Amino acid sequence: MGNHLLQHADLSATAIGVAAYIQSLPDGAPVGIKALTDRFREGEVRIAAALRELERHGYLERRRERLATGQVVTRTFSYNRPGAVADPDGPPPPDGPLPPDGPPPPPPPPVREPVPEPVPEPAQARRARAFDALPVPRALHHGAAGLLAGLRRYDSRLLLAERDVWRLVPGVSAWLERGADPEVVARALSGGLPEHMREPAAVLAYRLTALVPPHLPPAPVIRRPRQPDPFQTCDGCERAFRAAAPGRCRDCPPVAA
Question: Strands, E, within the chain: which ranges?
Fold first, then answer.
């Protein structure tokens, strides 16, 4: 474990801690979001965000593979240094030095194997992926859960389970902290829904991620126009003129000392 990880300028403290923990585990140890949340106090949202950070910077790779039983699973590779390549199916390294009479014979040419047909991703995996991509707010908004629970007033199909409400709260909180009006958020989530919708919570998670608005820019500073001086009556000719204080107009000579 090098300083390039521990002193990484673009990784959060959570991502560095998760990477250090994963690299301390033996091969084959479970490092999914569920296993990490059972180990640490951070919730699923922060753990998922940390894993995405490590993937972006090359410290982690997650591959979807199909077992002999047909089940699709996710295999996670952790790299001590970005840019490494994992080849789990490659040949093992040699056990000792090369023989003295020359290099080993070249390996036989590779045999092309038929490419299996792609297996459709299970609905449960698609749903988990949609929740993992939700934007992460600075803090949870106290009105986000009520907004999600009230979406069924707009469309009766948006009757969400309480578990799904709390999983979607970070996404709604991210919208609200960016200055979005709660009524606008509710209409953006409930309007124009597909006719056939099996997983309403997954649809909402996708919308919260794909349509998240930018941060609200600071309001411009409004400068009040300068008010003109009030009217004064000239002490010499009694004509009205504008000035900050009483006295004589510019056409009358000043009072002698």
Answer: 60-66, 72-78, 231-233, 240-242
